[in-house]
Amino acid sequence: MRTSSSSAVRRAAGLAAVVAAASAAALAAPPQPRRASLVVTGGTVITMDAERRILSPGAVAICGDSIAAVDTPAAIARRFVAADIVRADGAVVLPGLVNTHGHAPMVMYRGLADDLALMDWLQKYIFPAESKTVTPELVRVGTRLAALEMIQSGTTLHTDMYYFEEEVARATKAAGMRGVLAQTVIGFPAPDAKTPADGLARAKRFMEEFRGDPLIVATVAPHSMYTVDAESLKASRDLARTFGVPLVTHLAETDDEVRRSLEAHRLTPAAYLDSLGFWDTPALAAHGVHLTDDDIALLRRRGVALSHNPESNMKLASGAAPIVKCLRAGLAVGLGTDGAASNNDLDMFEAMRQAAFLHKLTDKDPTAASARTVLEMATIGGAAALGLADRIGSLEQGKRADLIVVSMRAPRQTPMYNPVSHLVYVTRGDDVRTTVVNGRILMRDRRMLTLNAPSVLADARRLAARVREAVEAAKPPQSSTAK
Amino acid sequence: MRTSSSSAVRRAAGLAAVVAAASAAALAAPPQPRRASLVVTGGTVITMDAERRILSPGAVAICGDSIAAVDTPAAIARRFVAADIVRADGAVVLPGLVNTHGHAPMVMYRGLADDLALMDWLQKYIFPAESKTVTPELVRVGTRLAALEMIQSGTTLHTDMYYFEEEVARATKAAGMRGVLAQTVIGFPAPDAKTPADGLARAKRFMEEFRGDPLIVATVAPHSMYTVDAESLKASRDLARTFGVPLVTHLAETDDEVRRSLEAHRLTPAAYLDSLGFWDTPALAAHGVHLTDDDIALLRRRGVALSHNPESNMKLASGAAPIVKCLRAGLAVGLGTDGAASNNDLDMFEAMRQAAFLHKLTDKDPTAASARTVLEMATIGGAAALGLADRIGSLEQGKRADLIVVSMRAPRQTPMYNPVSHLVYVTRGDDVRTTVVNGRILMRDRRMLTLNAPSVLADARRLAARVREAVEAAKPPQSSTAK
User: Fold this and answer.
1) Complex ipTM, two decimals?
2) CB B137 within 8 A of CB B333
């Protein structure tokens, strides 16, 4: 997957055949140009298709919500009359990035407390803040802020687990983003449900509301094997199976979770969930930091996909997930940022770089987690992990038109020998110029089209004052004299 | 070092006394406002002084090349008449970032070859590229490109080791940056010197040319203990001592280096250099990935400072330097990016985040390498490592005016509870708006004042074609039939 200027088109396996077929058709009957709602043309197109073709320059024609063709700019110009054109000269065009794990509204808690031991972080900051401030309004305002950040940094689909998930879904849809969104079920009183049964009922209503939605996959997320009872875990599985959507959960994030699982069940978390038949339906497990080789083989047999969150795992000192092993075993692995309270941003470019750095370090191998591998995880791999590889994750005729245009002209991106290396090692979310989801432009040359950025930021700052008060109030009063 | 809005001024230790003293002086005699060449006012000023004061809002008055005062905006407005004013509302003002290790011209090789085993990377790409393309022109063009990237991302001082170092120095000075720049001495034929003796002679001429320069500290860098003979190592030390500048070298970067040192000398690299008396003059060692506890104690006794390069060490799978131990032992530790061939950018904000993530992971401790600690390494710690803490590294009266203004208004930086956390965990080099070195504005609101960016980029792209050709020519001819 290496290219240098336009010669890549000729060298690209498979493309010659496509062009030849098109030419043959052209000879048989003079072509009638087809109307495209949008053409993106002139950049280096990294398709992430099965042959990993790179067209430099290339073009993508979009009709409605779908990709009608990926070809050379000249061929697309011959075949389509474009209602709208985005020029991508000097830029890279690639599939929209797929974030496979997050808690969007937690942007409201970003940077509230860092560099703390996990229990201090949770008990002194995150839990007090959540218990006092998680309302439908905070979820709505937080999701809008998260969507703004994600669209600006090239994420076109986010996977979410939180409370009041219908608010997350409405805000995601209004912003024009795609989402695999899961209502949380948890074994203690939550802001939106007193019991797991209440949570399950909420989840069912939520899944009914968004059934068949073109942008939203509504599902259920039992929080984890250590916070949800066996019956609720099974009921969650049944709900996901009934609706034909992937089940979402946290798995083996910390060594403490594994230790407690072994004590309580004499089984690892993955094996315990398997003993309940939890994996009998398509599922996405987040983290998997402390998976054993047997766990990996089990997840592979059960077809469970993994979301890898390198930044969160490093920042919270959870550890390094055995991702190279998981990929070698054939698991579908996507990348995620986790929530902004633990990362602290939602930039998938940072997640890619971090994944590459992390596994080279822990595997003591500079060839591990190559730029190509992590770009796969962030695009087609994530789509596969969510069971959506037939619809998104690559730029191919017939797939939904989710793509981004990324500038490659900054000094830190100069010179450019290899665009894939540059996407991972020197590019930031801020280099994304244009974001398209389902054929609709959400950001054009950095201008937001579906969100009013100043009002989103103002709302967030207003609610942040309430969060700060909640945390201050939860602190024990400080004595004015030393003891 | 935590603050929330303007109340931080009142809470900040030490500031009350300063204000009181100023008020007392004001009562004694009506103040005559002094002329300031530049005032930066209105932002949150993170001083990095001994008390780690944060003024929110604060202001910095600059007279010529030095800081005349750091105070509240109102106090600065009373005390100074400003010839020029930079508004920093909604931004953070902090000391310019100090990059303690790099090879600036190697930006010309960034992304040329990634994800390779070290020897493949060096022998198939970097060495052929360097042997055929390192000329004074490439060093000049590369340093300009590196300076552009560094000024844009808030670095005000870079530490360098390369060939034709006088070209690095001239380009650094012309860009207005500060540099601790070292002519390389190495034990095999280099692009600018056939022998170590030639390298030493070049170093001496270079150090004479820039002696006493207000921006450039010119010194010598024996490449490492495994590439330079004992006599040349000692001669380098003598040269640095004669000129009163810090000696610069690579140290214990890979386990292979340590193994070979133990085989050849029955001593670790640090101990072997000590046996030569190499550490008998102030020195800065880059990397220190594989330092033993005894090495750390030895470096502490000898007053050797360390440059930590987390991104390079991870990407090349060198390992994790024992930085928490080094800091605890009292070593002066600065941060560095290393050259762009191994990183692949020169963004110190990325280096800060990476340092925080890396040590939390490897120490299994989320409190390790806090945001405050890594910000110290990137500012006052780096200044101390270079023996320049009396002149730069913090915003204090009498120090040289090296500072940056960093925007904090992006969606990914919203809300902001703690500016220090945000600098490390959600800020990028691209958020830097204004960069000041030695009292001179090098970039103002993203507009470059000392470098012509389009011409720097065009020159770099032109030379990159030559680099690509050199690498292609060095590859063995590929057989057209499979064997």
Assistant:
1) 0.92
2) no
